[in-house]
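stage 2 :: seqdesign
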């Protein structure tokens, strides 16, 4: 597990049909959006593409999909995306004190 004094979520989104929109997200509690991020529409039990298998070999990469995107995050790094619903307090959030 990556140690942090602040709660965060870190993930990558790949858009197979629009690579100009590919992005890396680092999301923390803030006054502008709910935390954790709402990922209830991501289907997590999918056949992995293996895109990051070699690049991130030291991590257990979780992969999910929507109709237009593929989501990736490393299990054990920050607050998990799976089961995440915006603003829910049911997610395991590390101590967010500075």
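stage 2 :: out
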């Amino acid at each position: 597990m990556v140690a942090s004094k602040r709660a965060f979520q870190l993930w990558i989104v790949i858009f197979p049909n629009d690579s100009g929109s590919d992005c890396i997200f680092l999301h923390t509690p803030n006054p502008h959006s709910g935390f954790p991020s709402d990922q209830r529409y991501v289907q997590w039990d999918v056949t992995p593409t293996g895109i990051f298998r070699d690049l991130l070999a030291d991590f257990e990469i979780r992969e999910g999909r929507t109709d237009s995107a593929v989501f990736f995050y490393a299990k054990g790094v920050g607050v998990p995306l799976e089961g995440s619903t915006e603003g829910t307090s049911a997610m395991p959030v590390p101590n967010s004190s500075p």
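stage 3 :: structure notes
- Confidence is low (pLDDT under 50) at residues 88-98.
- Residues 9 and 80 are 7 Å apart (CA to CA).
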